[in-house]
Amino acid sequence: MKRGCYRWTPVFNRRDMLRMSSAGFGMLAMAGIADGEARASANPLAERVPHFPSRAKRVIFLFMHGGPSQVDTFDYKPLLKRDSGKPLPFSKPRVFSSTTGNLLKSPWRFRQYGASGTWVSDLFPHVARQVDDLCVINSMHGSNSRHGGALLELHTGSDTFVRPSMGSWILYGLGTENRDLPGYITICPTLTHGGVNAYNSAFLPAVFQGTPLGNASIAADKVQIPFIKNADGTPRDLQRLELDLVRTMNQRRLRETGPDKSLEARINSFELAFRMQSTAPQLQDISGESEATLRLYGVDSGTTRNFGQQCLMARRFVEQGVRFIQCTHSYKWDQHGGLKAGHEKNALEVDKPIAGLLQDLKQRGLLDETLVLWGGEFGRTPVAQGNDGRDHNPQGYTMWLAGGGVRGGLTYGATDDYGYFAAVNKVHLHDLHATILHLLGLDHTKLTYRYAGRDFRLTDIYGDVVYDLLA
Questions:
Q1: CA 169 to CA 344: how far, in whole Å?
Q2: 43-67 burial by CB neighbour count: b if 16+ within 10 A, else e?
Q3: Signed CA dihedral, 439, 441, 445, 449: sign only
Q4: CA 233/CA 237 separation, integer angstroms
Q5: Nearest to 404 by CA among 431, 434, 367, 441
Q6: 57-220+296-469, CATH topology level
Q7: Which of 157, 148, 63, 144 is nearest to 393 (CA)?
Q8: What is d(CA 148, CA 432) in angstroms, rounded to the nearest whole number?
Q9: pTM
Q10: β-strands 110-113, 427-428: how paired?
Q11: What's the confidence (pLDDT) of residue 278?
Q12: What residues in the chain have per-residue pLDDT under 70?
């Protein structure tokens, strides 16, 4: 047979085939990535699958701005009462002020409540009836004794730099269940000690920033979701055409310039505001709530109306799938003097609304999937300022959790005999953040965002999940 009768074809082994087709595989991978990015860009708030099955779906944070005193609320210290007026028997840490004196007993009596026998002071008689649903952490500690730094550390994990807030990280990790509402709402947020940095998204895309309803200077019954009211009465179909035109121009600009997070966030904010026009007004109208519900939250009383309205709105937002809601009692808990009058007034304003919220969530079947967090940016010293005040104390203080997969009726950790330092089973704010993310099905070491050449996370390079708190 002549040689010319054969057509010689090269023989490929697997290595050659992979080498020569690698460009094709690369294009396939790039197409998959581009498709995923396109979907994320189209709806960055789309609900996402958590890292593992979650205990909680949503968070309500009840922030007591100013720093409630742990030894006057949930951390019972018999020796503080016995030794009141005596010097602290160990060295004081460096804190906000240098003019603290001797030990100062609590002006309020503590009692045990519930099947758990949890100690609660007479400041919180309504919350005390819910203690079997509370997981009280008496061993919290942070890194900063100043309001601004401590507030940012609690909200963002950093007391030094501008970082994304806890709510922004959670929204980034999980998305939202309701595309017609913001996924992160903060009601009457504080204007001081960080201000917008307490609920901003920092280097995360702007779509994950918290949406403020009013601020601390506006009564809760006067606040509304901003920028959704159609002020000039433009018909909805015409408004839709206007938005479509703006969107077309903005998307043309994106094709010319490439990715632009600010412009993409603006497009999304326009669309969300348009959708909210038909959902938000009814949601914020509580006139349909029963008289019994309004009484439960204290909305029917002048003393409790403001915070009661916040808590009631938080429940309504939770029902509609909002991922993270913050209610702020601002800025009232900073009693360097006037401790008895100040803490008494503050507790009277929030005690009934908080208890009402817990009870209402439970009876509606929402508490199991809603994590409620209570606390301030730090606690107070067991030693006195003047005759009736306490200084800032980040060394050891109390926060509590309820619902959302935590162990109800648990008192975890302890401060020393006088309530100054976290001493047993210490829980740093990084640990608290890691635990909250875990309850939501998020691994805090994997919830990262690359910025300026580095992967960032809420807990930075710290934090351990406190598994003992989990149900």
A1: 35
A2: ebbebeebbeebbbbbbbbbbbbbb
A3: negative
A4: 12
A5: 367
A6: Alkaline Phosphatase, subunit A (3.40.720)
A7: 144
A8: 19
A9: 0.88
A10: unpaired
A11: 73
A12: 1-42, 95-98, 226-232
